[in-house]
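Allow me, if you will, to draw on your knowledge of protein folds for a short while. I have a record of one protein: its chain in single-letter code and its fold written as discrete structure tokens. I should value your view on which stretches of the chain appear to form regular backbone elements. Thank you for your consideration; the sequence and its tokens are set out here:
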Amino acid sequence: MRAIEETEQTESAAATPPRQRWLVLAVVSGSLLLCGIDLTVLHVAVPSMSRELAPSPAGLLWIVDVYSLTLAALLVTCGTLGDRIGRRRMVLSGFLTFGLASAAAAFSTSTAQLIAARAALGIGAAMIMASTVAIIRVVFTDDRERALALGIWTSAHSVGATIGPLVGGLVTAKWGWSAVFLINVPVIVVLLVVGARVVPESRNPVPRRWDLASVVLSVAGLAGVVFALKQAGEHAGVNGVIVGTAVLGSLLLYAFVRRQRRIAEPLLDFTLFRERRFSTATLCVIGCFGSYVALLFFLTQWLQQVGAYSPLRAGLALMPLAGANAVGAITAPWAANRWGNRWALTGALVLFAVALAAIALVGDTAHYGVLLAPLLAAGYGAGIVMTLGADSIMGAAQPERSGEAAAIQETSFELGAGLGVAVLGTVLTAVYRTGLPQVAGLGPDGRSTAEESFADAEGLAAHLPAETAQGLLHAARQAYDQGFTTVMALAAVGLVLTATMAAVLLRPPKTG
């Protein structure tokens, strides 16, 4: 089967002229840059969007991370389906879906509409990302060219996620929050037109079976667990519905894992996780990228809501973090050569954890200079971990299983992003609601409204007497600041535990 597929790929690539190969790379890398931008572009637009749509705390978290969770849940599925129906067809369909979903998001007038549009964006992104690696492998047969192409492709998503807040700040400041989605449409139109002309069709002659039951179990189980998390944060506690949903989601995920172990052609082959280094590196990537995306999201909210930064200023404030992240990714191979992959990865996790702890202890929106050093350290450490973690995942898998390992690697990044915002966002919401101080002159109904979210407190303040409004805004900022500090401290503890796990479990296998 592998020989048939390799023959098919070689023949397809032989017919691809050099200029067309690089145009193909430009199309797939451009689309991945757009997918990365959409992961974080909404972060700085959240305050202005919240004032217009007034989502609940759980609704806001769904708006932010339903994109990455949908993407993570469908990546492997879309890859398998693309092998069967054709990768070119899958990618072009993904472009169309992404463009239509972007337009729908831009013109959303309610929280439910925006959540649905963001989920559709995740579906489109999964269709795009799942087939682009296979397309590159088909088009680039020379090992050196393929390595360069894969390097450009990999960095495109990371760069997109990093510059997303700045793009969002620029666009929101000039045209409003809906424009962060609308700018996708002309780019997608260009990618669709060029891609239709230059991307060659390819498919696996002997594709794996597409198991619909596995898809339903994985998506429904993940949705149930995340829904329970968000509701627990919104209500600052649990009830029968929340517990029941969490249990049902967990059972569905358990059934998904059992099914993958029993069927002949699983959607996700869990035997790869028997390799200690593979499973450890995957957990490192999930923990690190989850903390990094959560830092991007909550830092932008903290700067705007507590520090009164404009969207553009908040986006610019993240640029040192983004620059340090890029430097960390570039210098990761040097760090691995000097100290070994295990200790470089462990040290970078510790550096990231110390940086988050410093932000929690001394972070002050009124003194950005105090934040600068921790932001640089956080970005640098995260860049090293993401690069070496991904390399460890691929290095721990057998060469003949590199395709499956790559799918799990991509999924771990997106799953980390979704779960990081979901889990830590739940904590922040609970701390905000329980920690909101009493405000003189604010009745029970007003306090109930203010507890919903910072945006609700801000909207309520506009209709209160000046003294009460000032007291309410001060209390809301204090509660949100406390929640942000708790989230940073919790993420730091999680990274320390992850670093300990890496130090213990990433030791090389015994020889002889």
Q: What stands out?
A: The CA atoms of residues 21 and 158 lie 22 Å apart.
